[in-house]
Amino acid sequence: MKRRFSFLFRQLRRKIVVGVAGPANHQRQAVVGLALLALTEVALLALTFCTNFLSAYIHNTLEIFHDFRLRALHNALAIVSFERSSGLFFEQPLQRWHDAYLGGWSFWNTYYAGVHPAVTVIFLVFILVRMFGWKLTRVNWKRLNEGAQPLSPPPDYAPVAPEPTSSAYYASDAASAIVTRASFADMSPAQQYRFLRSVWVLSAWLSFIGFLFVPTMPPRLLPVCDFLNAAGANVGACLTTEFSFVDTIGAHGSLLWDWNDESVKTLNNPYAAFPSQHTIFAAWCAMTWIMLVGPASSTLSLRSPRYWLRALLRWGSIAYPMVTVYCIVVTANHYISDALVGLIVLAISYACVRLYYLYQSRRQSYDIVPTFTTMLPY
Questions:
Q1: Could you give the count of Cα atoms lying within 13 Å of 158 in the half-sphere of its Cβ?
Q2: How sure is the predictor about 152, in pLDDT bands with cuts at 50, 70 and 90?
Q3: Residue 177 neighbours by CB under 8 Å, 6+ apart
Q4: pLDDT for 265-324, tens place per residue?
Q5: In the list 92, 127, 244, 275, which could disulfide-bond 342, CB 3.0-4.6 Å?
Q6: Partners of 228 in the beta sheet?
Q7: Cα separation of 342 and 348, whole Å?
């Protein structure tokens, strides 16, 4: 069933490319195919990035806000009860300690508001451009411009980067459409992109399920009595005697946006806290860097600037999730449980994608007979 669907999807994509570019212009087909791939990938990434907004729209459309708020409060109190029983409820004293000895709320609020999307977008663009750069090097544009038939190369023609199975147009990556390699290091940049993208997309949509079915009031809203959403309904719980959390963005602001901005009130889901997407995305960025570049390089000299740059990026990738977790907890936007569950969600997503790749590598042979559709760069 899955193979049939994949085949039909590739055929549909092929018909779109031929319909736009024309059946005889193979060079234009390659360009249109790459453009179509870029559009579909960007659309998928953009939609996944908007899961918070999508959950807000679904809740506002299908649920009375009063009931939504009560469910979020119930789940938040359940998390607090669990953390107190397990000794994890240290968010309030941590915030008080930070306020007394460190401060710098403008920095931490801006970090919360801006670093989370910016760093994730940078990593997504990096692996996407890396994938397209690899694909562009696999296309023999000169041969495409000559207009020969794709599956009938002349005997004396050597394609770019020849492989055991290749066409007159593309140096074949047999598993470009279907995964056949289990080891990440043995994958092509296109396959590595799909692997990392799949982990990120799956983890984001799993967190989206949490936003839908386990809405959770963040710590900053537990003692708040006067914060209203765009419809004029109270968002907080007004538990002023039980909790002393401070909404640091509301009290000190950030350099980017504030909770009182109309766009934030309209688009944001105030109870999208469990699990923490900040933690998921930060840990995914660290995982991406380590898997692509590796933790260290033994070939560079200590005097080489590249060595220290790699070391800085290496330790930065490890520290980034830790700093992010500290930020979301100290600004009272998440419980520590939100961060822990976020790490579990990312681990589950990685395990699912990894097991799928292992399954495909055992199920399929590396000796895939090349066809025109599997040799296209899209």
A1: 2
A2: very low
A3: 6, 10, 373, 374
A4: 888 999 999 999 999 999 999 999 988 876 555 666 667 777 777 778 878 888 999 999
A5: 275
A6: 234
A7: 10
* Helices 26-49/51-62 angle, 10° precision: 60
Asked whether the predicted pLDDT for residue 129 surpasses 70, the reply is yes
* Encoded tokens for 375: 């040799």
What sign does the dihedral 65-69-74-79 (CA atoms) show? Answer: positive
Q: Which two tokens stand for residue 177?
A: 């459409």
Residue type, 216: T
**Cα distance between residue 373 and residue 378, in whole Å:** 9
Rounded CA-CA distance 257/113 in Å is 7
In this predicted structure, what is the pLDDT of residue 31? 77
Contact partners, residue 132, CB within 8 Å, separation at least 6: 34, 37, 38
Q: DSSP string of 66-113?
A: HHHHHHHHHHHHHHHHHHHHHT---HHHHHHHHHHHT--HHHHHHIII
Measure Cα distances from 304 to 289, 290, 317 in Å.
20, 20, 20
Which amino acid, 15? K
Residues 371 and 110: their CA atoms lie apart, in Å, by 51
**Per-residue model confidence as pLDDT tens digits over 78-127:** 999 999 999 999 999 999 999 999 989 999 999 999 998 999 999 999 99
In which residue are the tokens 């290091």 written?
Answer: 185
**Two structure tokens written together for 117:** 């999307």
Cα angle, residue 117 at apex, residues 111 and 122 outer, rounded to 5°: 110
- Residue in the structure block whose two tokens are 């289990």: 182
For tokens 């995982």, the residue is 287
Residue that is written with structure tokens 């009931």 in the block: 67
Query: What is the distance between the alpha carbons of residues 98 and 119, in angstroms, rounded to a whole number?
Result: 25
Q: Is the pTM of this model over 0.90?
A: no
Among positive and negative, which fits the CA dihedral 204, 206, 208, 214? negative
DSSP state of 150: T
Coil, strand or helix at 121: helix
